[in-house]
Every structure is written in structure tokens, then in C-alpha cells.
Amino acid sequence: MSGLDDMIRELIRAEIRRLIRPDALAANDEMPIVDPELEAKAREVAGRFRRVRAG
């Protein structure tokens, strides 16, 4: 895996962590609650990443 791949993955992880509601983290839920609109945006970003990787 290239350094660029690692960097993109870390950016996606950071964005997902940002999207997770603090109240879900505070409650220590196994499955954090994510705002549906933000979750859709995260899925869109992940889809773009897959398309770029596929070339």
C-alpha cells in the first residue's frame, strides 16, 4: 500500500470519527450513533475513494 493510500485512509477515518456523535461515545455504545445525513456523506466519500482506487 502506498503512502498516499495510507494518508487517504487516515483522512477517511478522521472524518468518520468527527461524524460520530459525542453522546454515543460518552455512553460507550458498541455501535455509535451517527447522524444519517453525515453517514450518507461518509458513504459518498468512501465510494469516491473506491472509484479512484479502481482507476
Throw out a few tags for this protein.
single chain, 55 residues, mainly alpha
Our count of domains comes out at: 1
Count every beta strand, where a strand is a DSSP E run of 2 or more residues: 0
Helix content: over 70%
**Rg from C-alpha positions?**
13 Å
Provide the β-strand percentage band.
under 5%
**Average residue-wise pLDDT:** 73
Would you list the SSEs in sequence order as H and E? HHH
Distance between the termini: 15 Å
Shape: flat
Question: Low-confidence segments, ≥5 residues, pLDDT <50?
Answer: none
Structural class: mainly alpha
Number of helices: 3
Largest sheet properties = none
What's this model, at a glance?
75% of the residues lie in helices and 0% in strands. It is built from three helices and no strands.
Task: Provide structural commentary.
This protein is mainly alpha-helical. The chain has one domain (3-54). Helix content is 75%, strand content 0%. It contains three helices and no strands. The chain has helices at 3-19, 22-26, 36-54. It starts with a helix and ends with a helix. The relative contact order is 0.14.
Topology:
Elements (H helix, E strand, L loop, with lengths): L2 H17 L2 H5 L9 H19 L1
Helix pairs in contact: 1-3
